[in-house]
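Human: I would love a firmer grasp of how sequence relates to backbone shape in proteins. Take your time, and here it is.
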Amino acid sequence: MRWRVTASYLFSIVISILLVIILNIVAAFIMLVVQSHQKSPILKGLEPSANQFTRSFAEHVIMTDNNVTISEAGKQLLKTSNAWIQVLQEDGVEVYSYRLPSDVQKKYTPVDIIQMYKYREVNIDTNVFIGGKIIDHREFSYLIGIRDRTINKIVMTLDSDYILHLLKVGGILFFSINGVVTLLIGYLFSRRLSKPLNSIIDGIKHLVNEKYDHHYAVKGIYKDVFYNVNRLSTQLKQTEEERKRLDRMKEEWIGNISHDIKTPLASIQGYAEMMGDPSYQFTLQEMSEYANIIQNKSLYIKEVIEDLSLTTRLRNKQITLHKKRVNLVSLLRNVVIDILNDTKYAERHIAFICDEARIDAEVDVVLIRRAISNLIYNAIVHNDMDTQIIVSIAVTDRALITIEDNGIGINSDELDKLFDRYYRGTNTGELQRGSGLGMAIANDAIQAHGGRIEITSEINRGTKVIIYL
């Protein structure tokens, strides 16, 4: 996989560089073809300035009174350029000169002109360039000598066969060297790009194999990818830890619920066997007592199963709320009264406080009663008999229901887990039996109404639950 990524980048870089080289060669060839059909050079800036000066000086060679001369501007140019001019007629005889040195000959043969152009025939400081102009159907040539040691002329003799041979050898060397350089640059560049990609691929493999401890330095052109891989790794690790925690809690819950169900089942089975045994002669009062025990144990098991079903439907949003407008003050008062009317909790200290006679809200009465009852029961079973529990309700922009006690409190570790399904606190008393889903059901029921529950607690000072509804 790594070499496939490297090869892909290497191939793309090599193709790109080769295309650039080929385009440059094609462009150079086109310029040469166009240049061969142009009277003036395309890249004038690359032509020697002395040749430009000589060719352009033809405009200053003029005919005056049937005599050849140069313009005043031409004379000024020659002075500025530290140059001289000698104009020759068709037979090579001088017809005009300006600033001409004394040792320059006055008449030239064709061979003399060639020698003058090709080599330095005046002195070591002067280079001579040749131009021409036709005036009144007469053809004149002119020599311009420029005194400048930095100007040099090179005469070359070209052999076409030798040039073709050089082009072949040079072409092979050119493409070979450039090919090697291109491969080297492409390889280094592709390695630079593919190395972090290989790290990313390895990181994804670690995530697939549930290895979440690998983190990468967030740098380079792929820093955003590395950042998101690290973030995903952290999130997956947290999710996995949460899943394992919930699995452990579920296993503990299954063990607890199995124990809680086995006890009433054993009672039901025992009393049922006794009642069905003809060798036992029970009085009507005894039969009624045993039947009542069986009924209570059966109701307990039914409540456990209903709790599990309810919390599953609430968590998966599969329950339909049957809302109606009710007076929350009356609803809370009735919940408190019902709990106190239970003989198990008759000795508990539960007070209800409200300054309002009526606070209306659209709620599912059954779910809200269940949620508030669960929260009050939680305050009862986790505290001593002398604990004071105060239930109150007020209204601001929404209804605020408060359940406060002065009991033993809840430590911070348990406070974070209080609404988790399957969780039972470590300080649960003997009265706490059942599914262990009461607080989760209360939280899910309030959230289903668009509300929330906040809990604060201090050890040995009590717990305060606020329902925003």
